[in-house]
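DM from R.C. (forwarded with permission)

"hey, sorry to bug you on a friday — could you get me a structure for this? deadline for the figure draft is monday and I only need the backbone to look sensible"
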Amino acid sequence: MSQQDPLVIAGKTYRSRLLVGTGKYKDFAQTREAILASGAEIVTVAIRRTNIGQTAGEPSLLEFLPPSEFTLLPNTAGCYTAEDAVRTLRLARELLDGHSLVKLEVLGDPQTLFPNMPETLAAARTLVAEGFEVMVYCTDDPIQARMLEDIGCVAVMPLASLIGSGMGILNPWNLRLVIDQARVPVLVDAGVGTASDATIAMELGCDGVLMNTAIAAAQNPVLMASAMNKAVAAGREAFLAGRMPRKTYQAAPSSPTGGMIASAARS
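My reply, with the result:
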């Protein structure tokens, strides 16, 4: 997107409204190539699964995606309690020299990876009190989204469908409820499968989209990353342009009928 329509999170502006994950690629080199093709400026890092310096002697993601080029977004993927999530993000802040922007997710079970909202709310309270800028994975429940905003989270990230499912947006009406009441950015997180899913999310009015599997699990991840870049931009432009009204059971000609030759000949 242009500089005239930036995404603003925690007071910082970004040109791209696409955020991408760094897992499931064949290696760090492919990860970098796909992220460059996506145009993303914010990249998420699962602290429990990706080496960013906590494991000495192994390749570090930071060698391929240095903080000087990208805004790293440490996340708590794999955490099932508030305590584990808080501990993980404290470690991330230490590894990244005081970095405060983080993505909180507290999962309910390993089968659905659905958010555990009581634990998520508890972790959010602790993290905000400790000075973290919390972007938070949550259900598409407008009441709980408002609670997270009231706690002080800098962005809410409702799921479109289950993580890694590729099912797209299953409940656009709930997403609109979340979007319409929010005073912080709303980003779809989880469930995007292909470019049209990302476009629909943006057309609904989402401020951005976060994805990982949709790109990393594609047959050609780099090409899919490029497609997602264009899809998010197109969806945002369509939202800003304002779509034509839907007209149930009513057609309208594309060209005006007044002044047609046949009409003029009869007059």
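R.C.: lifesaver. The radius of gyration is 21 Å.
me: no worries. The beta strands are 7-9, 12-14, 18-21, 42-46, 71-75, 101-104, 133-138, 155-158, 187-189, 208-211.
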